[in-house]
Amino acid sequence: MNSEKTLIMVCNDDGIFSPGIKALAKVASEFGDVVVVAPDRQQSAVGHAITMSVPLRANAMTVAKKYKGFAVNGTPADCVKLAHGNLLKKNPDLILSGINHGSNAGINILYSGTVSAATEGTILGYSAIAISCTAYPEEADLTGAMEAARRVVKFVLDRGGLPRGVTLNVNAPEGEFKGIEWSRMADSRYVEEYEDRVDPFNRAYYWLTGQFELLDDGNDSDIHILNEGKATVTPIQYDLTDYSLLKEFGEEGL
Predict the structure, then answer these.
(1) Which of 95, 154, 177, 227 is least surrounded, with the fewest CB atoms within 10 Å of its CB?
(2) What angle do CA 15, 129, 136 make, to 5 degrees?
(3) Residue 167 contacts residue 237 (beta carbons within 8 Å)
């Protein structure tokens, strides 16, 4: 790779063989050299987990017959950490995570391995963007998500990067691109239920079910804008401190 060109690292949580990561690598290649470092298998909803109890292995491979890549037997956050300290000879100028198959808007931000890969990049000092499509099937039309990614990548590179501690979380509906807007994270949650089942050996086990619940009717939220057919960009941060309450409680003492 030409060391003078922009280097973009691509990761995800759906695994290195997913259509979404190939689509994102294609977009990234319009802006510079691409290297893919991603899990060797599906790792959806692992959040920001890291591997500590087993060794990590990275197998070199070629992604989509054109991009240098490493398949890692770990989580998305593992992939970014390992790339940063061991796998890449040059630090990337930008880290992209996605294109995830399934929305990472609202409370999904907290559970998402795709968003966590981008956030880990931010923690390590890189500019990072997570990109997701609301459709789950592997054959989903990622046209709109690719165009949203293209526009946000250009925005970040033209600015010379993002402020310290900030990650951009991009979501797009399936199909053609119909515009993109800045948004905030919608207030939402999952109302979980665990279905009781019994295996063939008469042992109880539990299967997670439940429904997504939107607690927010604001028209500036990511989910509202997605429901209007547009892509969204939400600036997020890993600093979870509530500074207003910290100030208020700090004045009261304990």
Answers:
(1) 154
(2) 45
(3) yes
